[in-house]
């Protein structure tokens, strides 16, 4: 069937606990669906007064939880490229002869390349979660998953678990510090990684929840990101992750003159929008352009004596500096992207842990992104309908997760996509994006080095930008300018097999990714 | 039928959402039951991106939530004797002609005496919640409730809501500070009351949740004790409660020589028990004797250079002083009992909010009381089987709630009841308690001014106390000594009507309270 964007999606998909095929819900608009009924139930648990939870090894936890063929296991990605736990657990599962697992991490990174081998060997047969890098590339080329992978935004994953769309049998939670009763946090310990609140929904809904730590500390370990009442077992291991590898290449301020120009234009657009006043709020992205734009916005706030209500992120040194300087009253921290952010999360009372439900859950009475004034986001591609792709490249390969892109774009009063028109000689503005991650209706402005395009639905903004002297152009005009310099990209030859579903944050399917069989 | 303690309880009781009669589960032992299946579901909710939640009045909230005859409404008691909200809401319901409400507060106090009039007028027909004072007295004498009242411990109430034993239609949450999106906390604002986490389970499970504040502050109000995602509406009123009335008479250190002697004996018993070492943990009660015993234990810790892992409470100035002095590493704060405790909760990073689920939930993978070394608790009566009554007086009147008594007694490695043998000339040690709140199996030691009685199941403790030279006696011996001075109390003439059920923390019924028809 086709959804409202005209994207061809499968009629059915594996759903719910047993993986039985259910009807696909097609995307019908950013706020078109209304959740019905009730959230899924959570398991009843109890414990004796003197029962102990600490187990000697991951193998012991696999045995104690009853983990077996066909089950779903989950993880958070707060260590990003530094994560050790997913590989450790999958290796242990492989040693125990467990097959056919569904892997439901919040995200996979390059460090999880060994997952490819576990797919080949049948240990992993399905993935629900973002894939950054090699696992996505393997899956794109037809890599032997039994069902299509399912990609969800941060808010969408939380929603899906609460709604019962994903049932987790065993949650494994890398915990930089934990106590013997299973209270755990991410900001303390030998190898702090920032918040681990991504896993709090897993811990509450999973049949069994296992906290894995390399720092068992006296009770009570706090803040209670993961609570004793949810935790079945605690395992102590030597290493869960490397904080030095949390900050990846995307987290550095750009030095490219083109990209700095884009950032400058974006900041000028914020100023021209009239939103920049006391109480201002923004999402500071983690890409190089977004970081620079955030810096320029901070400069403007300082000059104008403006204090923002909150900055949201991916917390970085830059946001922490703004908090310390008094430019924002609070940071809402969904992930901690560098060591300064982790230290601030621990030490600054107004640097607040924000779990993905609070951040971004569609099925709730409001999430934090709905109160954003401005957000800077990236894209691999945008098209003339303002649709944004962040998942695939124009060669068709599935190389990135959704992150909070959908959640922030849907929520922010002004969502700006900050992109160069060319990457190398590949075009970024295209007639139709390879994959729709976020629909054009959620995008207000596209800022490029060749000018600023405003969604026709936001004539108010367009007028303000023109009055302020910004280089406002149509997306068609910007594309035409850029097309003079492009080298036609290699086009993927897609097969019929759907290798991944892209869910909109409400659980409907916004697009399907098909197998790449070759390139023309 | 009779439960395992031989207490006569009704065969059936009103249960679940519709109030249909269900079979009563009889108490079978402190850890005898195992919860089955799953917790109750929580309602799905959503909101538009630009929807507003702030309503102009309680009346508007009553209308918006659809509150009508027969529904269940809930409240927290963090303002204790200073609470304004319950009376305000019931008055508004009465003005709107709403009848037959089930009131499910965490507790009622003397300030809620107007509830009696609402019962008489048919606005309130049922109560599930603790009753301290006039409402309990009214109910004891047959005051026109349609169903028996249900009294639960702090942990038991949380459990019951999660299990679906109590379904809340509309939760009203007094919030000393809230933002327009319904994030709310108790430690800030114009009239801070300490933690309001009692209501977090209400906010999550109620069909509709209304935050009522007298201090609407910029977003995001934190800590997120009540979260935006749970909150349907926000109402701003002039007054929600008076913090000066939180500390009641029970919160003062005793000056009575008899009671100080009991406290001294209790502290000596702690020292003799061998539990007092690094990592020690205790519940500091809020009664005069418990406070004094806590002080003496603190003195012993200071002298011995011992640092405790945590103190739990009812947080008071005394616990705060111990935290500041470094005698304990953390306070787990279930309620804030005075203004110093509220300030410390706000300012001390190791003074931690503890919701009743974390504190005391039987249906969880462990609660904080299970890690207590020692707890000091009170009683209105104890009997020769070590059963404890905290709910009724020997005249049969239901005058007190359970609080955390059951939860702490069941959890602590050593539970000490610190009581005088006489109150005026009324006996405290009796052959059979008027009502069993907490079973003898959960009580280890009873400390009186005439000596220390040890539960026969704890011969290990008895031996240590004897070796330490403590005045160890049997409960029969202590009772015999005290009985020489008593004036026989007026005995209640109970009718057949059950006016209240006392639930054990696992949802079984440990006792039933019958109507007092007169006294002999």
Provide the fold topology:
2 copies of one chain form a homodimer.
Chain A: E1 12-15, E2 20-23, E3 54-55, H1 58-65, E4 72-75, H2 85-95, E5 101-105, E6 107-108, H3 114-120, E7 124-127, E8 130-131, H4 134-140, E9 149-151, H5 154-163, E10 170-175, E11 177-178, E12 184-185, H6 200-205, E13 208-213, E14 233-236, H7 257-273, E15 281-283, H8 288-304, E16 310-315, H9 317-325, E17 331-336, H10 339-347, E18 351-353, H11 356-360, E19 374-377, E20 381-383, E21 388-389, H12 405-411, E22 414-418, E23 422-423, E24 426-427, E25 429-430, E26 445-448, E27 451-454, H13 459-467, H14 475-483, E28 492-503, E29 509-519
Parallel strand pairs in A: 3-14, 4-5, 4-10, 5-7, 6-8, 9-28, 10-13, 13-14, 15-16, 15-19, 16-17, 17-18, 19-22, 20-25, 22-26
Antiparallel strand pairs in A: 1-2, 11-12, 20-21, 23-24, 26-27, 28-29
Helix pairs in contact in A: 7-8
Main sheet makeup of chain A: 8 strands, mixed
Shape of chain A: globular
Termini Cα gap of chain A: 27 Å
Total of domains of chain A: 2
CATH top level of the largest domain in chain A is Alpha Beta
Helical segment tally of chain A?
14
**If interface size is counted as residues with C-beta under 8 Å from the partner's C-beta, which chains form the largest one?**
A-B, 60 and 60 residues
- Radius of gyration over C-alpha positions of chain A, nearest whole angstrom: 22 Å
Topology, number of strands of chain A: 29
Helix-and-strand structural type of chain A: alpha/beta
Approximately how much beta-strand content do the residues of chain A carry? 15-25%
Low-confidence stretches of chain A: none
């Amino acid at each position: 069937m086709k959804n409202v964007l005209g994207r061809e999606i499968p009629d059915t998909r594996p759903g719910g606990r047993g993986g039985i095929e259910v009807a696909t819900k097609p995307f019908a608009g950013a706020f078109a669906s209304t959740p019905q009924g009730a959230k899924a139930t959570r398991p009843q648990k109890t414990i004796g007064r003197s029962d102990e939870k600490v187990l000697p090894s991951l193998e012991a936890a696999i045995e104690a939880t009853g983990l077996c063929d066909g089950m779903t296991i989950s993880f958070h990605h707060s260590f990003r490229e530094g994560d050790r736990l997913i590989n450790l657990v999958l290796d242990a599962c492989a040693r125990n002869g467990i097959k056919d697992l569904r892997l439901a991490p919040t995200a996979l990174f390059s460090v999880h390349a060994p997952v490819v081998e576990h797919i080949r060997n049948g240990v992993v047969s399905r993935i629900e979660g973002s894939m950054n890098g090699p696992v996505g590339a393997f899956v794109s080329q037809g890599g032997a998953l039994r069902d299509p992978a399912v990609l969800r935004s941060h808010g969408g994953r939380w929603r899906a678990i609460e709604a019962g769309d994903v049932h987790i049998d065993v949650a494994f939670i890398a915990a930089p510090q934990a106590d013997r009763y299973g209270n755990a946090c991410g900001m303390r310990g030998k190898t702090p990684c920032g918040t681990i609140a991504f896993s709090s929904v897993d811990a509450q809904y999973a049949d069994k929840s296992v906290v894995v730590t390399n720092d068992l500390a006296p009770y009570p370990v706090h803040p209670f990101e993961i609570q004793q009442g949810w935790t079945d077992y605690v395992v102590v291991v030597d290493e869960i992750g490397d904080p030095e590898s949390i900050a990846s290449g995307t987290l550095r301020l750009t030095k490219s003159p083109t990209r700095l120009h884009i950032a400058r234009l974006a900041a000028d657009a914020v100023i021209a929008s009239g939103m920049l006043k006391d109480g201002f709020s923004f999402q500071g992205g983690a890409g190089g352009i977004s970081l620079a734009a955030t810096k320029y916005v901070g400069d403007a706030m300082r000059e104008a004596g403006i204090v923002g209500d909150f900055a949201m992120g991916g917390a970085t040194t830059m946001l922490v500096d703004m908090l310390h300087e008094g430019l924002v009253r609070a940071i809402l921290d969904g992930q901690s992207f560098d060591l300064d952010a982790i230290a601030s999360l621990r030490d600054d009372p107004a640097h607040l842990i924000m779990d993905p439900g609070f951040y971004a859950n569609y099925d709730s009475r409001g999430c934090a992104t709905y109160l954003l004034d401005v957000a800077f986001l990236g894209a691999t591609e945008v098209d003339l309908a303002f649709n944004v792709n962040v998942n695939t490249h124009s060669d068709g390969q599935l190389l990135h997760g959704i992150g909070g892109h959908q959640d922030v774009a849907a929520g922010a009063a002004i969502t700006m996509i900050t992109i160069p028109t060319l990457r190398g000689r590949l075009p970024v503005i295209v007639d139709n994006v390879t994959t729709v991650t976020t629909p054009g209706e959620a995008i207000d402005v596209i800022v490029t080095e060749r000018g600023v395009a405003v969604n026709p639905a936001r004539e108010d903004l367009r007028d303000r930008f023109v009055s302020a002297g910004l280089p406002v152009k149509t997306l068609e005009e910007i594309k035409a300018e850029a097309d003079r310099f492009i080298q036609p990209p290699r086009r993927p030859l897609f097969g019929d097999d759907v290798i991944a579903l892209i869910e909109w944050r409400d659980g409907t399917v916004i697009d399907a990714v098909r197998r790449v069989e070759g390139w023309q």
